[in-house]
Design goal:
8 helices; mainly alpha
Length: 191
């Protein structure tokens, strides 16, 4: 019985050392991968600068991507209305094109309401970090209710992103009031 206890302690100690060594190896590997991840994310088309320069457009892109992925049956209307060139950020454009292709390819084999989009469907064209970013977009907007008004506002926001700057000095008071009202609506649904 004393010998049994000593053997059990020795086995537990060896197991702990083995687990600790394994954990340290995993931690080292994760650290290296994490550094690579940060470098890869920073390389995604310098989108961080574009997101700061066009915050509303970037949010609109994410909302539309989440809508397309969560509700593929609504995606066809978005695909018909919004070409990929309307996207401001390169990474979101890449996701949009891949989601569009994936949904259109699977639309023939499944009815639209049966298709459940998964980030893993993006496959070979995306790195693990990019698929994680797509999953993050889905998770962030999982509770969002995508009304037709929200979708139309997002589409309009992206379509107007490359429009000519507005000269506020020559606008009428009604036009200025309309712009302020639209901005207030956008701020309300973004928050």
């Amino acid at each position: 019985s004393i010998l049994d206890k000593q053997v059990i302690r020795a086995i537990r100690k060896e197991t702990r050392i083995s687990r600790k060594t394994t954990f340290q190896e995993i931690e080292k590997t994760f650290y290296v991968q994490n550094q690579n991840y940060k470098n890869n994310i920073n390389k995604i088309g310098n989108d961080a600068d574009l997101r700061r320069q066009y915050p509303q457009e970037s949010k609109s892109e994410e909302l539309l991507l989440a809508c397309c992925m969560r509700f593929p049956e609504q995606a066809e209307m978005i695909f018909q209305t919004l070409p990929p060139e309307s996207f401001v950020t390169d990474f979101h454009r890449k996701i949009y094109q891949a989601v569009r292709q994936c949904i259109q390819e699977n639309a023939g084999s499944n009815s639209g309401s049966d298709l459940k989009f998964m980030p893993s469907f993006l496959g070979g064209d995306f790195e693990i970090q990019e698929i994680s970013a797509v999953a993050g977009i889905l998770a962030h907007y999982r509770e969002m209710i995508f009304t037709p008004e929200v979708i139309q506002d997002c589409i309009a926001n992206l379509q107007n992103a490359n429009a000519q700057p507005v000269n506020f000095l020559t606008m009428s008071d009604n036009d200025l009031q309309q712009i302020i009202t639209n901005k207030q609506k956008r701020i309300h649904w973004i928050n």
